[in-house]
Each structure stands twice: as C-alpha cells, then as structure tokens.
Amino acid sequence: MKIEHPYLMFLGDAPDELAAKTAIGIKQWRPDWCKGQLRLENCNADLGLPDMTIAQAREAGVKTLVLGVANRGGIIGPVWMETLLEAIDAGMDIANGLHTKLSTIPELAEAAAAKGVSLFDVRHFDGKLPVGNGEKRSGKRVLAVGTDCSVGKMYTALAIEAEMKKRGIKSTFRATGQTGIFIAGEGISVDAVISDFISGAVETIAPANDADHWDVVEGQGSLFHASYAGVSMGLLHGSQADAIVVCHEPTRSHMRGLPGYSLPDLKTTMEVNLMHARLTNPDCVVAGFAINTKALDDAAATKLMADISAEFGLPCVDPVRNGVAPIVDKLQEI
C-alpha cells in the first residue's frame, strides 16, 4: 500500500497523549507531511499542529486523513463516523491503524467506492505475496532486532535512516508495522501476513537495489518472545541483512506481557540473531547496540553504554540521548 501525503491527523476523542502515540510518532518523524490535526469534543491529546476542519484541510491540500489514535479494542465508534464520511465526501483517502477494518463498515466502503477514494487498513494486508526464496540480491540492508518487544527498534531504524540521509548516503526506511507505514507512506505490516509469506513480504519491500543503497528495515518482536518470534524470524530471513543492530531496554524484569520469561542477555541475543540471519546472508555482522536508557539517569546510562561497548568492541548508543552516528560509522565500513 502507498499512502499519499500531506496528512490530516485525526485524534478523535483520545483521552490522553498515550492514546495518540501513533500520531505523535508520525509528527516527530514526518513533520512536513502533517498539515494539521482534527480533534473531537473531549479530546485530551494535542500534537501542537493547527486545528483544522475537513474543509480547511481540503483547502490546505491534504490527501489523507490518518487515524492516529488508538482506543480499547481498536473500535471505530459512531462518534467518529460523521467526520470520516465528511473526509470521504471531500475526496480524501483514509488511513487506519486500528484492528477494525474500514473496508468492513458498509457505510464507509460504499461512500469510498462512490467517491473513488481509498481506505487503507494498514494492519491488514490482502494482496498477493511470493514465498521467500533467499536468493542473493544487490544493495545493502540493516535490520533492527531486539531482546524484547517495544525496546526501540522502529526509532532506531528511523534514526539510522535520518543519519544516513544527513551524510548523503542512499537509504530508505522500510516499514513493517502500522506506525512505520504511516511514517514511510508505504510498507507491509508483517504481523498481518500469513506465516508462509513473511520472508517473501520482506523481500518485496526491500528488493534488489543499487550496490551502495541501504534499506533500513524496521524490526518486529524478538526471537526470544514466545508470542512473536515467528515474525522476527521471517524478518531476519527476508531482509537478508548485511548487518543487525541489537536493541535493548535494560530495566525490564521480564518479557513484555510474559511475566514467566526473563530477557536474554546481549551476547545470547547477538549470537542467536546472527545464526539465523546467516541462513540468507552468511556475511551478516552486528553493527552495534541501541539501548533505551530512558529509565536511567545520565551517569548510569553513560556507564552502561560504555561497558557494553567495551565488552563487545562495538558502538553502543541511546538513539534519543546521543544519536546513532557511531553505528552509521560502522555500517559504512561494510
């Protein structure tokens, strides 16, 4: 799917900022794509963008209304319908990251068909995909992997792409999850792909390219997470990664959502990911570590990153605190 920008960010009746985390991520990484925000009564989230009506957004050249808010159960409630129908009538596409599919709501589907606009349900993929073949392809690829879910893989990948572009390195962020797709404007949410086709999906979104071009592939899940390891494995094989970056949150007491499972250590994480990555790229290496040190003070964070770097002889950074320049330096050696 390819989503047209600029965007109008729909925050609906979000009760707080956390409910709008998708919209916050899009605004952070693609501020030039976000023309404004649309908030309903009782909305307590604010992106700091101009508040717009659908009519004002249309005048500003908005192409897509993005549902940048999540609610319990991913439901598209009646209170939103008037706005969604108004956007369709104004000729806007709608992009949706919720579990509920816009295309299954007859009133919206019929209106969109009549106006010739698109409804993008980015958590779902209904197209045809090949089975992965593992054949060597040109170009370079780096994949963010993790000790657990939600440790900063998307942020790390986006930071790497931004640093590469700053240096004039040919690079493209390849989105594999719903927020990443909104940020990239295209991609495939691999957790919605039938398991036989996950590696083929990644081969599709990160195809053969110029020899000096880097695809920066968004990671998902963790090989060590009992719920999501299958998606992580498919990403490793399909990306045919030349390098991986290991992402970690050091204060976790257990795997996210799995109290009975402890996090693996960094050495194990590195070795197991490399072993599986080398099925499709025997030359895959680790380019460094990205540590989410948000819960640590400056002194503790600095010491931890220095210790990890010394132990493995590789760059170790917090992409938020100090950027990813040392990791990109390492990638340029490949």
From TrEMBL:
Gene3D superfamilies associated with the record: NAD(P)-binding Rossmann-like Domain, P-loop containing nucleotide triphosphate hydrolases
InterPro entries in UniProt: DgcN-like, DgcN-like_C, DgcN-like_N, P-loop_NTPase
Domain D-glutamate N-acetyltransferase-like C-terminal, residue spans: 131-328
Domain D-glutamate N-acetyltransferase-like N-terminal: 46-124
NCBIfam families in the record: DgcN
Top-level lineage group: Bacteria
Pfam family, one: DUF1611
Phylogenetic placement of the source organism: Bacteria, Pseudomonadati, Pseudomonadota, Alphaproteobacteria, Rhodospirillales
Native organism: Thalassospira profundimaris
Protein name per Swiss-Prot or TrEMBL: EBNA-1 nuclear protein
